[in-house]
Amino acid sequence: MKKLSARRRHPLAALVVLLLALACTGGLYAVFAPADQAQADETAQSLTIEEGKKLYAVGCASCHGTGGQGTSDGPSLVGVGAAAVDFQVGTGRMPAATSQGPQVPEKKNIYSQAEIDQLAAYIASLGAGPSVPTEEQYGPEGADIAKGGELFRTNCAQCHNFTGKGGALTHGKYAPSLEGASPKHIYEAMQTGPQNMPSFPDTTLSEKNKKDIIAYLDAVNSEKTESPGGLELGGLGPVSEGLFGWIFGLGGLIAVAVWVAARTAKAKKS
């Protein structure tokens, strides 16, 4: 007993007890805390979806159906994903105006970003689809501007012009200008293919490719960027510049030719 009592009074006994207590506390936290955190996250997500459902019922259900299944006035939203909602509502294209033309234009949005997030969460709950990209995905860090220009000219310039100025399509439709467009919204448009635009999933254009294209557009539309060729006629491309050449260049040559012919005829008469 004396030996046992001496061991209990050993100077390291208190340290051993403390370490055991810390180990038990850590173990209990590891067992119970993650479950509590996961439950809290699940509850917060459920509340977000519920708020989004309320907003949807007021602003979207009349066209897209009470369950997002679509109607004769609007397509189904099942499976479009949160990215499509963030783009369409964030750019003001949705809700659409009562009187629509051949294309729904961009306008001032009527929802806060928090409300857009709630709507996006509700639509995402109806079916899997592209998620809202993070800043790391569309930010300029690590982007290759030259590669982005090559990709843009190959895949996008036919409609948006080689500098993103936009352009006309058939039946009164158009490709909008990309000047001043949010990098996040450009990324989402490539993900989801809104209206006349085809979608470019990661199997077609990788996440890095999208980042490069966005960096290229930011570079060519920057106020600091100067045209190395001088006057660019708005950067509208070879069609507008060719038209300028035909009207003013060729027109000027014809005028000079007529003037020379008139002077020659007058000189012969005299």
UniProtKB/TrEMBL annotation:
SUPFAM superfamilies in the record: Cytochrome c (SSF46626)
Topology of the protein relative to the lipid bilayer: Multi-pass membrane protein
EC number in record: 7.1.1.8
Entries under Gene3D superfamilies matching the protein: Cytochrome c-like domain
Subcellular locations according to the entry: Cell membrane
GO MF annotations, alphabetized: heme binding; iron ion binding; lyase activity; quinol-cytochrome-c reductase activity
Source domain of life: Bacteria
Amino-acid positions noted as binding heme c 1 in the UniProt annotation, renumbered to this chain: C60, C63, H64
One GO cellular component term noted in the UniProt record for this chain: plasma membrane
Pfam families, sorted: Cytochrom_C, Cytochrome_CBB3
Posttranslational mods: Binds 2 heme c groups covalently per subunit.
Cytochrome c domain: residues covered: 47-127, 143-221
Reactions catalysed: a quinol + 2 Fe(III)-[cytochrome c](out) = a quinone + 2 Fe(II)-[cytochrome c](out) + 2 H(+)(out)
Signal peptide: 1-30
Keywords, sorted A to Z: Cell membrane, Electron transport, Heme, Iron, Lyase, Membrane, Metal-binding, Repeat, Respiratory chain, Signal, Translocase, Transmembrane, Transmembrane helix, Transport
Membrane-crossing segments per the record: 243-262
Record-linked InterPro entries: bc1_cytC-su, Cyt_c-like_dom, Cyt_c-like_dom_sf, Cytochrome_c_Oxidase_Subunit
Residues where heme c 2 binds: C156, C159, H160
Top-level class of the enzyme under EC nomenclature: translocase
Quaternary structure note: The cytochrome bc1 complex is composed of a cytochrome b (QcrB), the Rieske iron-sulfur protein (QcrA) and a diheme cytochrome c (QcrC) subunit.
Protein name: Cytochrome bc1 complex cytochrome c subunit
Lineage, top ranks: Bacteria, Bacillati, Actinomycetota, Actinomycetes, Kitasatosporales
